[in-house]
Design goal:
Blueprint: E1 2-11, E2 14-22, E3 25-28, E4 34-37, E5 41-50, E6 56-66, E7 70-77, E8 83-86, E9 101-103, E10 105-106
Parallel strand pairs: 1-10
Antiparallel strand pairs: 1-2, 2-7, 3-4, 5-6, 5-8, 8-9
Amino acid sequence: KTEEATYKELSKEQWEVKLKVSAEKLRADSTGMETNIPINDWIDIGVYGKDDKGKDKLIYLKKHHITKKDNEFAILVKEKPRKAGIDPLHKLIDRHSSDNTKGLVQK
């Protein structure tokens, strides 16, 4: 889940995106009972800008090693960002995938 997403313009060709995300890993038993298990996974972090038609396009996508629930990232991009988050392409099983990305707020 993306908790907070902000950006700051550093120059005309560089922006800094700051993200606060939370990640949990659950295991279900044969009866459907879920329990938290330690997370130690490489998960995509992505930043979207916009293309010539105004539609979302990925301007940053990289796997980051996630080993705890709460994580913070500072990412530099060369285009103005619009939204960002964790697992933006929804590769992982997630009951609430709509909260993976968030529109960016300028700081």
